[in-house]
Amino acid sequence: MPLQGGQNFRDLGGYRTRDGRHVKWGLLFRSGSMHGLTAADYAYLESRRIRVVCDFRDIHERTAQPVNWPTEHAPMILSDDYSMNNAGMMPKGPPATWTEKEAKTALTASYPRLLATFNGQYRRMFAELLKGHAPLAFNCSAGKDRTGIAAALILTALGVPRRTVVEDYTATNRYLNSGKILAQGRAPANMMGKPVNPKADPAAMLGQMKPGALHALMAADPSYIEAALAVMDRHPGGNAGYLRDELGLGRGEITKLRQMYLE
Asked: 3-state class of 139 per DSSP?
């Protein structure tokens, strides 16, 4: 998206489905934190008529990096007051000792847990879509992990092939401004495995990490999203069974979503 202060803000439109249709443009948006949006950005997004924003960030992230939508045309913001703690999902020991392999292995293992942890928020997102409350945007801090899973769920429900779903996830490697995040002296809180603490020195923590481990932490590696998608594959009934049992999307709901968001 042509935004001055956007972070990994993308339209999911245009993807081809298995039955030859395409995801409609201008209805489904994924993003990183929107705290850097400028007045011009807000005006542009107002012209896109975004009605709902599902903000997956925890209370610490939202407090540290608030998003100040102009009140006159602000979308409905949906968020949960929770504290993200991924300490158990990161490698053991201090960050300075992490290897690239350890970081990648830990992050891969974390994705099935994120899929379960945010099930309630993903259900609410789909409920809004079924009500026709779109254009809808959803985001976390980097627009990679929690948001990446949400995008994969939507695209899967709409019938987009697995290969394309993974390609959309890895596109973050092109659109996420990792350098900007690092220059700000912090990585997204969910990646660092603890809430943002303004009294701490996140830049020092990042500076302790080996380049390989830092790269694994910031990258959108296919193995990460594939770990979440594998949970769906293993579910009784595969993707359809998972969407039905875990997200309440039966045949009727899937048909409705495809009627509304495909062309």
From this structure: strand
- Cα gap 176→151, rounded to integer Å: 15
Which two structure tokens, joined as six digits, stand for 129?
């879509």
Which amino acid belongs to residue 253?
Answer: E
CB 193 within 8 Å of CB 86: yes
Cα-Cα-Cα-Cα torsion 32, 188, 211, 100, nearest 10 degrees, comes to: -90
DSSP letter at 209? Answer: S
**Are the C-beta atoms of residues 204 and 156 closer than 8 Å to each other?**
no
> Directed axis angle between helix 146-157 and helix 222-234, to 10°?
50
pTM: 0.90
Contact 35, 66 (CB under 8 A): yes
What is the per-residue pLDDT across 124-167, written as a single tens digit (0 to 9) for each? 999 999 999 999 999 999 999 999 999 999 999 999 999 999 99
Distance CA 231, CA 214 (A): 26
**Distance separating alpha carbons of residues 118 and 22, to the nearest angstrom:** 27
Only one residue has tokens 């495809």, namely 258
Phi, psi of 236 (to 5 degrees): -55, 120
Residue 65 to residue 63: CA distance in whole angstroms: 6
How far is the CA of 263 from the CAs of 16, 243, 252, in angstroms? 10, 22, 18
CB 183 within 8 A of CB 152: no
Give backbone dihedrals phi and psi of 30, rounded to 5 degrees, phi first: -115, 150
- Where would I find the H helices in 184-221? 189-192, 202-208, 211-218
CA 1 to CA 11: how far, in whole Å?
7
